[in-house]
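Issue 218. Parser rejects a valid record. Input:
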Amino acid sequence: MKRGSVLHLIRRLGAEEKVFLTDHAREEAAREGCTTADVFYALEHATEAVVEDVKRAKWKVYCLRSPMVAANRCHNDDAILEPGEVAYRQDVSGRTFEATVPARVCPVCGEKVIDGKLLLRKEREVAAILAREGPIDGASFRFMRTTLGLRAADLAALLDITPETISKWENGRNPVLRSAWLVVADITIENGAADGRHPLRERLAALAKGKRTRKRVRLDAA
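Output the parser choked on:
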């Protein structure tokens, strides 16, 4: 597989395969404002536009049948990755979130490979903390949105606003509307619920589709 080719990754992705990310690629992409959730969105939707967005963010993504198989910068495909750890760090809205996560380490070049879904879970943990504690600003708004797997256009439809409005919020050109931020925060919190239900998101989606309402409603007896 051509290194760094997300499109080729998508074409080869099979049910038995997993997505692994290198630690230096994750850090590089984070500086570009790209999250692990962006990569998984690309894998799920596989549109040329989304793929190009991810490629521009310089994600080096590898599709491996096993984390024991090396995909490393030393190009030594015979190297067997060994168990190890990597420091996870996420900076959002002036706050720093840190953790230590399991990884596989190349014994030749020292590059570390991390399970993409593990990184995704960490990002969702960060998003849930931001949703509960803030701050209310464009950076936290964007981070929550991307961990939900929502494109700006998708969220704009749910909130009945334009994608341009969301872009201005996230780029700091306009302050985020507090009520919109709180809605996204509530969706983020329910996204981590153990029962897997998303009532608020489902209600917003129904309203956005213009679902017909009953003209006459009978209430329960007192």
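Fixed in the parser; the record now loads. The two ends are 67 Å apart (CA to CA).
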